[in-house]
């Protein structure tokens, strides 16, 4: 159905049945709901918070909104058209906003644009999914506050962000050749994730900080010159590469995907109470590879064993952190004591191979009689050697008590003997 009469629909309900199409023909919709299982096309102007529960298809025309927009159905922006967010407003609902198309056969790719005049907020239940999309800021910069997900999820997909960005949600590039490029300044406390072959690039002078959640990096994250990825909370993990500096202040850095290697092309700093989590199995282990300097200013080293079957011959020394620059820590009296749960052991029974050195207790060990993990340093790396502790290797407190009582008893007998000798 085509609406060609012009005019305004004020706060009513316009319904499109399943498989039907309604052409809005660039009209002004003020409030109300576009309802049903059909498709609304034609663009125009939405004022005062229009709600769409059907499919919004902006293939041949653009749409300007003021006062917010609620999307509870699919929204598609293609063919170089745009959704113009005029003034401060919120995109709400539970929808996916799809930007652009990919080339298919003889059909060229097209761009879908989200254009921001003011500050626009994307709620947590909204996903902006770009096949070939752009987020652009106008009118004195424009800012997008992302509480949902901005993603290029699929092989060859791309999302370009040039508006100011406050990322309190998620940025995701997932799929071979998928890219998210942020050329504007970025702040916020959200996560950044990449699948294998995916790349997220920040080039606009960004302060990337994660307060909670998980950044799963199995592809590449490229930070702008001088930028830092700060893990203030949550977990940074994966088998990919972060190009830039990483500072862990209160979260967990967990290399690998049980297990595997995470690479930092830059410097790595860990401060208390952050944790470095290392897992190992019979034939593989986690490694954090740092091309620059590693500064371990306390915090935890959590070591755990994967699996239930123990192959004792496999438990040899392995590197859990390698660095291309220098290694430093905050404990000046003993530079090797770089973690707050690390301790310098007394000598145990030599038959178990436990001697003076630096150790950490692991939450899970490969030996039923107990395990600790010996830490040593080699040129350019820190090493772990699993060690078995027998209950007989170190006396229990009760044994010390019994020994002390025995000494007291012997002392008393000796005193009585001396008294008898004196009396004689």
Describe the structure.
The protein is built from one helix and 46 strands. Mean pLDDT is 83; it is low at 1-7 and 391-408. 6% of the residues lie in helices and 49% in strands. β45 and β46 form a beta hairpin. The protein has a 26-stranded mixed sheet that branches. A nine-stranded parallel sheet has the order 3-6-9-12-15-17-19-22-25, with no helix packed on it. The protein has a six-stranded parallel sheet with strand order 27-30-33-36-39-42, with no helix packed on it. With 424 residues, it is mainly β. The termini are far apart. The radius of gyration is 31 Å and the shape is elongated. The longest helix is centred in the last third of the chain and has 27 residues, at 397-423.
Give me a quick take on this structure.
This protein has 424 residues and is mainly beta. A hairpin with a 2-residue loop joins β45 and β46 (381-388).
What's the topology here?
Elements: E1 8-10, E2 13-15, E3 21-23, E4 27-30, E5 33-35, E6 39-41, E7 44-47, E8 50-52, E9 55-58, E10 63-65, E11 69-71, E12 75-77, E13 82-86, E14 89-93, E15 96-99, E16 112-122, E17 127-130, E18 132-146, E19 149-153, E20 158-161, E21 164-167, E22 170-174, E23 179-182, E24 186-187, E25 191-194, E26 199-202, E27 207-210, E28 214-216, E29 220-222, E30 228-231, E31 235-238, E32 241-243, E33 245-248, E34 252-255, E35 261-265, E36 268-271, E37 275-280, E38 287-290, E39 294-297, E40 300-305, E41 318-323, E42 327-329, E43 342-345, E44 357-361, E45 371-378, E46 381-388, H1 397-423
């Amino acid at each position: 159905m085509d609406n060609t009469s012009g005019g305004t629909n004020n706060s009513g309900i316009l319904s499109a049945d399943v498989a039907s199409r309604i052409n809005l023909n660039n009209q002004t919709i003020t409030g109300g709901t576009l309802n049903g299982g059909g498709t609304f096309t034609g663009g125009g102007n939405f004022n005062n918070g229009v709600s769409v529960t059907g499919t919004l298809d902006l293939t041949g025309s653009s749409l300007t909104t003021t006062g917010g927009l609620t999307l509870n159905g699919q929204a598609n922006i293609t063919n170089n058209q745009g959704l113009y967010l005029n003034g401060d407003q919120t995109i709400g609902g539970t929808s996916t906003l799809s930007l652009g198309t990919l080339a298919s056969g003889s059909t060229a790719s097209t761009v879908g644009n989200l254009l921001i005049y003011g500050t626009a907020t994307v709620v947590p239940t909204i996903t902006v999914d770009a096949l070939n999309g752009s987020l652009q800021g106008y009118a004195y910069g424009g800012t997008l506050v992302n509480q949902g997900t901005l993603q290029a999820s699929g092989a060859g997909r791309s999302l370009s962000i040039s508006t100011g960005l406050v990322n309190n949600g998620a940025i995701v590039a997932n799929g071979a050749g998928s890219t998210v490029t942020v050329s504007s300044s970025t702040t916020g406390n959200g996560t950044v994730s990449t699948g294998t072959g995916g790349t997220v690039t920040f080039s606009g002078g960004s302060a990337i900080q994660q307060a909670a959640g998980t950044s799963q990096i199995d592809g590449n994250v490229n930070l702008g010159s001088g930028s830092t990825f700060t893990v203030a909370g949550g977990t940074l993990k994966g088998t990919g590469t972060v190009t830039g500096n990483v500072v862990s202040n209160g979260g967990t850095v967990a290399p690998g995907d049980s297990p595997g290697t995470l690479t930092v092309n830059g410097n790595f700093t860990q401060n208390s109470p952050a944790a470095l989590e290392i897992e190992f199995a019979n034939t593989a282990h986690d490694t954090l590879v740092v091309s620059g300097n590693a500064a371990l200013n306390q915090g935890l080293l959590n070591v755990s064993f994967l699996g239930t079957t123990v192959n004792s011959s496999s438990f040899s020394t392995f590197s859990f952190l390698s660095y291309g620059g220098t290694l430093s820590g905050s404990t000046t009296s003993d530079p090797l004591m770089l973690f707050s749960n690390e301790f310098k052991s007394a000598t145990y029974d030599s038959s178990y191979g436990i001697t003076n050195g630096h150790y950490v207790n692991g939450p899970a060990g490969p030996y039923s009689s107990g395990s600790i993990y010996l830490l040593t340093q080699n040129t350019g790396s820190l090493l772990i050697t699993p060690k078995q502790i027998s209950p007989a290797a170190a006396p229990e407190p009760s044994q010390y008590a019994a020994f002390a009582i025995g000494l007291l008893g012997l002392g008393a007998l000796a005193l009585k003997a001396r008294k008898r000798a004196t009396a004689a």
